[in-house]
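One thing: mind reviewing this one?
=====
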Amino acid sequence: MRFLNLLTPFLRPQQQAKSSAAGPMIAWSHVGQPQWTPRRMANLAEEGFRKNVIAYRCVMQIATAAASVPWVLYDDQGTELDTHPLLDLLAHPNPMQDGVTFMESVYANLQIFGNAYIEAIRPNEAAAPIELYALRPDRMKVVPGPAGLPQGYQYNVNGQVTNWPADPLTGASSILHLKEFHPLDDWYGLAPMEAALQSIDQHNASGAWNQALLNQGARPSGALVYNPKDGPASLSDDQLQRLREEMGQLYQGDRNAGRPLILEGGLDWREMSLSPKDMDWLSGRNNAARDIALAFGVPAQLIGLPEAQTYANMEQARLAFYEETVLPQITRVIAGIDHWLCPMYRDKPELDFDPDSISALTEKRQAQWSKIQNAQFLTRNEKRQASGYGPVPGGDESDGIADTNEQETVTVPRDERGRFTRRFDNGETDAENETNLHTGASQYPD
């Protein structure tokens, strides 16, 4: 028996770790090497967020709206928890940020860079996190593993590199990597800012063109023509240099707007007018702004673009903004945080958000509750379940409200002549009562 026990581990088929068959093909040439971001993230933040007011407004509107929605936590039985260490951590993630500011940075990073990284500080591997930090995506690099999952992360700040390991089979790590969908990159997400970058460049270029025009006194460029009556047909190098310096010092800029031009002999000023196509730069600027808002999923009506009345009123625009942009973003982020953070707690709670706190959804929510309340075929508990609440004792019975839309059909028998044969309180039938009506003997004269 002892001999068979020694052979059993060799005879019994061993369990194999499950992993994606395509994973090794993704990472075979980059295993253990940090994958550099294939684009310059600093340009996205500089040109898109810092220099473009439309992109800045879109990013902050999404981040502010999503971060203001409160968290909701449930236990393994589906009961809502009012107090829990996870709720305290999300309300005060670190000494420098409150919960709303922390989530604003997470959502903003997703919009600008397409990636967001959260670090969990734990005393040891068995303990729950005590702090959370949002790390800059432009400093983080993913280290691919042999199974097509990250085996670590590298964070570089002024030449100092910090490494976090990750399980190459499960991806478990102290770093949470949230990313947008990218069809051509296995490790990094595609930011809405990058998708709108061409329109952002056009919008910035139109603003620079307008600024240059204002610097010239809001006048189009012109040409100085040298046509002397006698002498050389062209200016000397010294004369040309002096003319350029005088034009730049005395006649360019907003302070010199309207100053008369004094020309020496042989010089003539000829204005070069702008074509109607060139003068239509404002229309092109507005079109670029609408494309930027479209890339972020923000109705142009909400960022103050003229002639952008896509929705009938501002309330409908805000409702569409939350339903099509904010709520899907919150759902993806909370799903990632729940999958990563909740297993670090022994009771394994479930994280969610409270859509009832969103003011833009109030009118739609009231209409939905009204429909549920008027559905008389539902019990109280069925109505509570449809509204997102738990059951109550005695709520499985009907609420006792009659349905005014459903009328009871009563079949009244007829005699051989087709007359109704209802029987009244005095015992007479319809036929007898009809006969007595003519004689005046019925107790129901009317």
The chain is about 40% helix and 15% strand. Residues 376 and 403 are 6 Å apart (CA to CA). The chain has four domains: 26-217+276-360, 221-272, 375-409, 410-446. The first helix runs from residue 2 to 11.
